Structure formats: structure tokens, C-alpha cells
Amino acid sequence: MAAALPLAVLLLLLLGPVGGGHAEPPRDTLREELVITPLPSGDVAATFQFRTRWDSDLQREEGERITLEKDNCHLLVSHYRLFPKALGQLISKYSLRELHLSFTQGFWRTRYWGPPFLQAPSGAELWVWFQDTVTDVDKSWKELSNVLSGIFCASLNFIDSTNTVTPTASFKPLGLANGTDHSFLRYAVLPREVVCTENLTPWKKLLPCSSKAGLSVLLKADRLFHTSYHSQAVHIRPVCRNTRCTSISWELRQTLSVVYDAFVTGQGKKDWSLFRMFSRTLTEPCPLASESRVYVDITSYHQDNETLEVSPPPTTTYQDVTLGTLKTYAVYDLLDTAVINNSRNLNLQLKWKSPPATGALNRGLVFAEAPPVPFLYAQRYVSGYGLHNGELNTLLYNTHPYRAFPVLVLDTVPWYLRLYVHTLTITAKGKENKPTSRPPAVLLAPVGEPHIPTARLPLLSPSVLSALVPSVVAAKPVDWEESPLFKSLYPVSDSSSYFVRLYTEPLLVNLPTPDFSMPYNVICLTCTVVAVCYGSFYNLLTRTFHIEEPSTGGLAKWLANLIRRARGVPPL
Amino acid sequence: MGLLSDPVRRRALARLVLRLNAPLCVLSYVAGIGWFLALAFPPLTQRTYMSENAMGSTMVEEQFAGGDRVRGFARDFAAHRRKSGALPVAWLERTMRSVGLEVYTQSFSRKLPFPDETHERYMVSGTNVYGILRAPRAASTESLVLTVPCGPDSTNSQAVGLLLALAAHFRGQIYWAKDIIFLVTEQDLLGTEAWLEAYHDINVTGMQSSPLQGRAGAIQAAVALELSSDVVTSLDVAVEGLNGQLPNLDLLNLFQTFCQKGGLLCTLQGKLQPQDWTSVDGPLQALRTLLLMVLQQASGRPHGPHGLFLRYRVEALTIRGINSFRQYKYDLVAVGKALEGVFRKLNHLLERLHQSFFFYLLPALSRFVSIGLYMPAAGFLLLVLGLKALELWMQLHEAGVGPEEPGGASGPSPPLLPAQSVGLASLVAPLLISQAMGLALYVLPVLGQHVATEHFPVAEAEAVVLTLLAIYAAGLALPHSTQRVVSAQAPDRGWMALKLVALIYLALQLACIALTNFSLGFLLAATMVPAAALTKPCGPRPLYATLLVLTSPAATLLGSLFLWRELREAPLSLADGWQLFLAALAQGVLEHHTYGALLFPLLALGLYPCWLLFWNVLFWK
Question: For chain A, what percent of residues have pLDDT higher than 90?
Fold first, then answer.
């Protein structure tokens, strides 16, 4: 095998100039997708996904490059077509196996919006698997975060040893992997990171069509940042090139999710159109894309009789079980000339129609019913008051009628927030469990009423300084189907090796830091003065003074008087 | 210190203190009272100013214009409330959801320790409704609260209307960085307390309530709103919270800024702001406002729902709409605009409000007295106790030598040690008995209410109040019972030692109180100090007794009530005053149990026993 490989490369090199770039079937493909999901709350979510797949083993050929460089040969790997060079070089330089980076502004409200396709914590999140050939993981991690910081104009350079963790259970590789040694995993969250256009622009530049054609024309910054949730992500991982998995390909997913607010953007109506959301319409697919599709979730799951009407009518529909519920999607294929040619542009419109019986008064207005509750969601808060103690509570709600879910909880707590782990309690079904050895591998059992288990962690806490504490909840549902659109993000080879991830809100904890301001100084000075005065006064008041007659003297006194007389000073 | 350790000078100084004690005491007391009265005058009052940079530099443009919406919501709310007879929870939920809030409810119940006659309730239960406006592009780490209390007697429907209209307006804006919680509580303050306890997941008052389903991070500030009509002539601001806690002065400054900007008339304690500070009239008017604030703060009760937020370090104030017979009237749009401005500025906050003062007195809305300037007033009053204690200490110590004996070389005073030991032993009994009396005063009324109702034809609330008074009065009979216990070995020394202990005890208590709640400390010092200083078992005893009774904590409460109504320009008749006094006693006990107010235990366990010691001194044989 080892001997065969250089031979194969050599062969390719020889064939390269002969075959020419065009005759050879492209080794990289781009698929772009947009999913529009009307949310139960009346808002609308739009999720973009740009998938670039490159049938090239970057790292191995990178290794070859070094040996071949001497021959001054033309290198396959230096020729990037669709795959962004900046990221490709990163993979080979730092020997990455997987890279997941997300920038999120806002918080996905699982309770009201339902489970998301891909969840991300508020702020910036970066987790990376390194190849097991990397000797100094921490050094690579540090350098990588600095490079990424430059690429995405973000403050990822603030990732250091104080906020980096190596999770041992909650994270598993999402791509092809032979075994999981967690010492090659690094995970960090920067909850304070603010996401803005300066992060969006470099992200857009990684797209093959940039924002010139295809679905990416909709990515107009001023509209994307007029939303209540914005999350952009980059996922790189190795996948199987063919069904037998003899060689690997690299997959880059760039995803972007936004939630448009029915009240802020939609003036209280839940009728949406592409133009209303993005102030653009679709005119053409990206010419480099091999697949360009728009999906609209038209599942009717509301209790009231309103129905969703989509115009223009879809050519095909697609049905699949996504996150436990059967969903129906209307599919628009932009490569299908009929979709765009009819009107030269595609402006999808979503209208809610209610039968006349319910009255035309509320038509199209956001409904006033409580939204359906998702199976699994989490809540987190600080309890207690004052600065001497407090508790962190994480509530997990399982509303599934009969199923229990094993849950892994990962909490990243900054070093300056001291938790007393011995006070950790886990309450499920109203019973309190003290974790025996290592904490949380707890079975979340379903009960009729929603809020069951809490993990309480009292803490030594604080004042103006505030700490943002994010938390990741990873659940492993047994038979939940993945979204068809994001199917290949989770490995299918091993059914137990993927997770549904929930992120809770970050917390603001008050720490008892002294603020060296006026009141503090006043208190310090006053206490000092009082202490000094008290000591002296107490001493004086309790002590009795006696005047002692000086003893009749001695040699010393006689000598002293002698000297005094000589100086002309009255004697003692 | 060198001055005092020199025996000759020490003796001279001691003689000075002893000889000039009475004039010094009078001078110090007068200085204290005078200083306090001078607080309302310009050199001591300063103009308020905004300390928080995040709220100061930029002005916001208010766009709220939902006058019809306010009236519509208020009308519907009042109609639904009348129909159901309680808080229309379902209607509120529906309406809040329709304006785009995340809506949650919380039910609570509380059995009061005894029936509340003032609010006519005993087994209280209710439901709080709150809607959370989720700030776009924020992760729910911080929030602001707008709350409207709905009590059994105050419907507050206009305030609910304004709250809903503001929620609808706020919901359409993109600029929010903090979540905003719109909270409507039932059973006014009890509902607020239940919600706050549930939000912070604690239980300090024995409230039973359902846990909250929705939270929005750490609450940074809260505004409570009470309106009684569609038009208001002025807005009154209440700042005094539970146990005399005050919100950060910047919050008040912020509100005042927007009142000025919108041309709204704002009052403090129902009093207009004096315009002319150069003549005497302005400061005199300010003095009345100041006195009202001192009385309100000293009472330690929350003067509005905001008072309960302060415990959780949430800066809060209550705004009350007042409709009187002034000619300038504002509709609710003007109030809404002011609130919008306040919330938008609070939205800018990057840190908790901490830049400005937490301890202050307000002679007017735009003037304040800082802690450094008002503390000397209390200091002077406490100095009287110190001087008296010093005098007694010296007399006790040098009794054998005699204060008049010329200083100089005399040996150690031989009777010192035996005298001291006798004094201390004789003190144990009165101290213990008076403390036990205080404990009885604290525990028995509520504990024994059922026994009392069985044997006497009174209701529970009456029973509690009458038991309180009975135990209080029974304390006056104590000297006769303690006399037998106390050995009459050294009669003069006995009462001196007792008075010395009582003086130090009183001074310590008052100093501690004045540090946390200046108003209460000052009020108690101003009344109790003269009697405490004068009391002795010789001289005009009936006069001293009258003075002591008139300055006992209960009498202070009664007097404060009369003064308060007088300053409010609604003088009380004697009978009304007595009724109000009884009601205030019941309320005081009740507030201790329901909100954790500390005035009742403080008086019962601290000051009343201390006062009994002085009573003991007076009737020392």
C-alpha cells in the first residue's frame, strides 16, 4: 500500500497535463440549500447551507508536496477550485481532522421555536479534532485559533487555557474517524463575542459564488442583522468518498440560520415572502453549483384550522421524519428552468389562510395560542440573593409521552467562579440523587409534568464584574431521525455516535469583587479610624493610672544629675 | 492619647467632662437637631447629577403614541375584571401573547399569620401573569422589569392598559439589548413578593407558589406603575423600600430627566418642588418633604412594589399617577413616553447601577443630601449618650476618691473592685427580665392569638394588637418585680451601673440602625436620647416618668403618625389617630411575617428591652 500510493500520485501527475482540467470530471462539488421554516410563534427561520465536497486527501498530498517540491512539480493540492484555499491550507498545516466554528448572536428559543437543525451557543464556539499525528495539541490549538481569528475578523484569539476544555463524553467526531481519543479534541466558547458584518463578509467570501449569484444573493447584511437570531457556522470534516469508504473526501459546510421576527420585521403578520425577508428575490442558481434548492416547511401542525399556502405552487414535495415529527417540504429546484423562467425571478410567498368560520379578523395575524412544547428543552438560571452564596440551576424538560433520554451535561465554568461540587444534587421525578462517583451520566425519565430534574450547584459568588457561563446539553435520542437536509452531518455508520445538542442560555453571575470606588474607600478608612480610636479609648478607660513616687535614685540618677548640673539644666 | 495617659491632665479633663457634662449634652443634642433641620438648606443639599456614563451622554427620541390603545386595553381589562371579580388571567395571557410576548403565569397562596383587617384578607391566593419581551440578538442574560400591582382595592386598570400598550410598542423595536419583563401581580405586594421569590428560587417568607417557567437572566432595574385615572396631573415617585433601603440615586435622576424633558410635573411625597432656594420659603418646603421622607423611610415598609425588589439588589422605584385639581393635565401618552425613555436608557446600561449614591435623603426631587452630610446629625445625638456614659463611668470608678477631690497623688481607690462586682451582679436580673419581656412581646401576640380569641370576645387581629399593648404595658410594672431580686447593697452604684449599661446598649443599637436606616436611627435617637440621658431615681420622678413614657418606642410611633398626617396636610383627630395606631401595629407585625420587614423585631427585641432598663433605673430604690 505504501509503495502503491506514490505510484498513484505519480500517475495522476502524469495524467494531469494530458487530460486537461475540463475533460476530467470535477473532483469538487457545491450544493446549496435554503430551508424556510415558519415557526410556531409566527416568526420564520431561514437556514442556508452551502456544502462543498472535495475528493482530495489534503493532508496526504500535502505530505507528498514536501517531497515533490524539490522537483518543482506542479501540485494538485495547490490548485483550489471550489474549496477555499484559506481553509484548505489550515487543514494541512495544523493536521486537522475536524473543525467546527460558529458565530451566533441571539439565542435559539427551543421552547417557542422548536428544535433547530443545528444549534449553536450564543457567542463564538470552536471545537476541533486534531489528527493523532499532532504532538503538541495545545500549541496547534493556540495557533489555529489565532489564524481563525484573522480569517473571520473575530476575537478568537481570546481563546486560551482559561476557557479551553477537553470534553470526554459530550463531543464525538461528526465525520469519518477511527476511534476517538479525546486528548486530540479542544473546545472553547466565547459567550461575549458580538457577531456583525465584519464576521459575515469573510464568511461570504469563502463561498464559490461569493454573494454574486445563487442563494447567496439573499445574504444582504443589513437584512440579516435585522433579525432576532443570527448564527453562521463553518464545519469541516472528512467523509467517505464512496460507499465502501476506501478513501476520504473533505466536506465543508457553511451554514447560516436567521430568524425573522413577526413583530419587528413582519409588523405583527406571519405572512412572509423572500423579498420581505431579504429584500431580494432569487434570479438564478449559482453556476458552479451542482444542486440548488429551496425547501419550505409546509407541515400543518397547528391546532387551529389555518393552512399555509405557498406561491408559486411547488413542483414537488418531500416528506420525512425530522426530529420525531413527520414534516412535509415544498421543494423548488433552481436548476429546473421552469422555476425561474416563468417570471424571471422567484419570490416565494407564504400566506396563512383560515376558513371563513373562524372569522377574517385574525387572518394572517400572529395567533394567540401557546405554541406546542418540544420534547426536550432546557432552562438555566442563578438562584439566591446576596453575594455570600448562590446556586446554578439547570432544568431539563422531557415532555415525551413515554421515552427516556440519556443526557450528558457539559458546563464550562470560568476559573474565578468557584463551585462546590459536593453540593451538586440531581433531582429527577421529585427525588434527590447524590451523584456517587463522577457526576453526570443521569437518566432523564419522562414524567407527566414537565419540569423534573435539576442540577443545583451552589457557588461562591460577587458585583460589577460579571461572568458569562455557557452550558451545553447533549442528548442522545435513540430513534430520532435527522433532518433530510442535514443528514450527512451526523455519521450514519454507528447509530449511537451522534447527538442532539441543546445549548442553554449563558448566565450572568455576580462576583463579590471589591470595587475600589468611593464607598469602598470610605468604609476602609472609617473602619481603620474606628479601630484605632476604639483600641486606645478602651485601653485608657479600663486602665487605672497610679503616680509612683520616683525611687530615691541610684548611681544612674546621680550621674545624670551630675551631667545636668554641668549643662546648667535643672536636675531630675 | 498622650493627653489622656498623663494622670494630671487626665484628671483635669475628667473634671471638665464631669462639670460641663450637662451643658455639653444639651449643646450636642441641639447641634444634632439643628444639623438635621439645616439639611434642607442649600449648603448641605446638593443638586442631583447623573453619574452613570452609559445613561448620561445620549438622549433618546421617544416615539410612543398609543393613547387609544392604552384606553382600549384599560377598558377591556376593567370590564373583564369586573366580570370575573379577580385578575382576568386568561384575558391577560391572550392579550400579552397577541402583542408578541412570551407569557407565563404563576399561582401562589399564603396564609397570613392573622387576618389583615386593613386589606381584608387572610387566606390569600392569586395568580401573577408576566410576559417576557425577548430582546432580539441577545441571549437573555439581563432584563428590566415593568410591573403593575393589582390589589383587591386598587384596580389599577389604566396602568395595566399602559403596560400592555408599551409592551406592544416595545415589541416592534429592534434596539433592545436586555429582555423586558412585563409583570402584572395580583394581591399587590404579596404577589410581587411571591414572584420575586420564585424568580430567585428561594423561600424566605413561607409563600407557597408554583415555580416559574420563564426567566430572563439577572434583573437590572425595575419600575412599578400605579395609575388611577386616564389623565394625571402629576407623577409621584416613591423610593423608600423594605427596611429603608433606597434605589441607586441614578435611577431617580433618570426618571427626573425624562419628566423634565416631557414637561411632566413630578412630585416627591406628594409635594411640589420648591422653585426658590435663595429665600427661606423654598428650604422650609423642602424640610417638610425631607421630614416626610424620613418618616416613610423610618417605617421600614415598602412604599410600593419596588420596595421588595431592592432586597435582590434590583434598583427599583414606584411611579404613581396623581389626579388632583391642578389645571395642567397629561394623558397617558406623556407618561408612556417618559417610561419609554427610562427603559431605553436603562437598556444602554453596561453594568449594574452602582455609580451614584445608595444612601441619601431627598428634600426635593432635584436635590439630595449625601450620607457624609447627614451622618453628623445622628452623630451629635449619639454623642449625648457617650458623654453621659463617660460621666457615669467616671463617677463609678472614682466614687471612692470623689470627683471633687483634688487630683494628685492618691493611692489606688480601695472600694473600686468590690463596688464593681456588686454592680455587675445586680445588673443580670434586670437585663434578663427586660430581654425576656422583649421576647414575649415578639413571640406571644401571634402565638397566643387563638388562646386570646377563645377567652375574650375579640377577633384574631384585635387579639394580636391588644396582646401587644398588654405585654408592652405590663413591662412598666417590672421595676417592682425586679426590686426583690436586686440586692440593695450599694443603692447608688446599682442604678448607675444599670444606667451605664443601658446607655451603651442604646448607643450601640442606635448607631447600628443609623448606619443601615438613617431615618429610623435618627428618629429614635431624637426621641429616646433626652429621656435616657435625664433618667435617674432621684429628682422629679413623675416628670421623668412622663417623659420616658412619651418617648417610648410605641409613643414615638403614635407621634410619628400624627406628624406624618400633619405634614401631609390631613391632620388626624385623636380617635382617628388611635385607630391608625392600632392598624399600624397590626401592619407592622404582618409585614414582618409576610415581607421580612425588620422594624417589629428590632423594636420588640432591641429597643423595648433597652427602654425598660431606663424605666428600671427610674424606679430604682
Answer: 14
The full set of domains in chain B, from first to last, is 63-272+301-350 (3.40.630.10), 384-400+422-619 (no CATH)
Cβ separation B139–A107 shorter than 8 A: yes
- Residue whose C-alpha cell is 477555499: A84
Q: How many CB atoms lie within 10 A of CB B543?
A: 10
Contacts of B352 in chain A (CB under 8 A): 463-464, 510
- Nearest chain B residue to A519 by CA distance is B357
C-beta atoms surrounding B546 within 10 Å: 12
What is the spatial distance between Cα B476 and Cα B487, in angstroms, rounded to a whole number?
20
- Facing B139 at nearest CB: one of A122, A391, A549: A122
Q: How far is B193 from chain A (nearest CA, A)?
A: 14
pLDDT in tens, A129-175: 998 888 999 999 999 999 999 999 999 999 888 888 888 777 777 77
pLDDT in tens, B446-461: 888 888 888 888 888 8
Q: In what order do the strands lie in the sheet with A96-105?
A: A164-165, A185-190, A123-130, A96-105, A229-240, A248-260, A44-54, A28-38, A291-297, A325-333, A316-322
Chain B positions in Cβ-Cβ contact with residue A381 (cut-off 8 Å): 201, 215, 217
Q: Which of B552, B418, B432, B435 is nearest to B490 (CA)?
A: B418
Contacts by A319-326, CB closer than 8 A, 24 or more apart = A320/A481, A320/A483, A320/A484, A321/A481, A322/A481, A322/A482, A322/A483, A322/A484, A323/A114, A323/A115, A323/A480, A323/A481, A323/A483, A323/A500, A324/A375, A324/A477, A324/A480, A324/A481, A325/A299, A325/A301, A326/A299
Which of B129, B111, B108, B110 is closest to B209 using CA atoms?
Answer: B108
Pull the grid cell for residue B315. 434598583
A18 min Cα distance to partner chain B (Å):
54
Complex ipTM over 0.90: no
The residue assigned the cell 447584511 is A221
The whole-angstrom separation of Cα B209 and Cα B203 is 9
Residues of B in contact with A547 (CB under 8 A): 7, 408-409
**A window 189-208, beta carbon within 8 A of B:** 191
Q: Which of A262, A393, A517 faces B100 most closely, judged by CB atoms?
A: A262
Q: What is chain B's length?
A: 621
Q: Which residue type occupies A126?
A: L
Q: Is the pLDDT of residue B254 over 50?
A: yes
Write down the mean pLDDT value for chain B: 86
The answer to whether residues A429 and A445 touch, using CB atoms and an 8 Å cutoff, is yes
Q: What is the mean pLDDT of chain A?
A: 74
**Pair type for strands B360-364 and B367-370:** antiparallel
Between CA A118 and CA A257 the distance in angstroms is 9
- For residues B437 and A410, give the distance between their C-alpha atoms in angstroms, rounded to a whole number: 56
DSSP string, A455-476: EEEEEE--SS-EEEEEEEEEE-
Task: Please tell me the distance in Å from B431's CA to the nearest CA on chain A.
Answer: 22
Between residues 91 and 120 of chain A, which touch chain B (CB distance below 8 Å)? 105-107, 109, 112
**Tens digit of pLDDT for each residue in A71-130?**
333 344 667 888 998 998 899 889 898 999 999 998 888 888 887 877 788 889 999 999
Residue B342 and residue B319 in contact, taking contact as beta carbons nearer than 8 Å: no
Residues of A in contact with B138 (CB under 8 A): 106-107
Q: How many CB atoms lie within 10 A of CB A299?
A: 15
Q: How many Å lie between the alpha carbon of B556 and the closest alpha carbon of chain A?
A: 31
What is the per-residue pLDDT across B511-570, written as a single tens digit (0 to 9) for each? 999 999 999 999 999 999 999 999 888 888 889 999 999 999 999 999 999 999 988 888
Q: Write the DSSP assignment of A262-276 as a string of letters.
A: TTTTSTTB--EEHHH
Instruction: Map residue B131 onto helix, strand or coil.
Output: strand
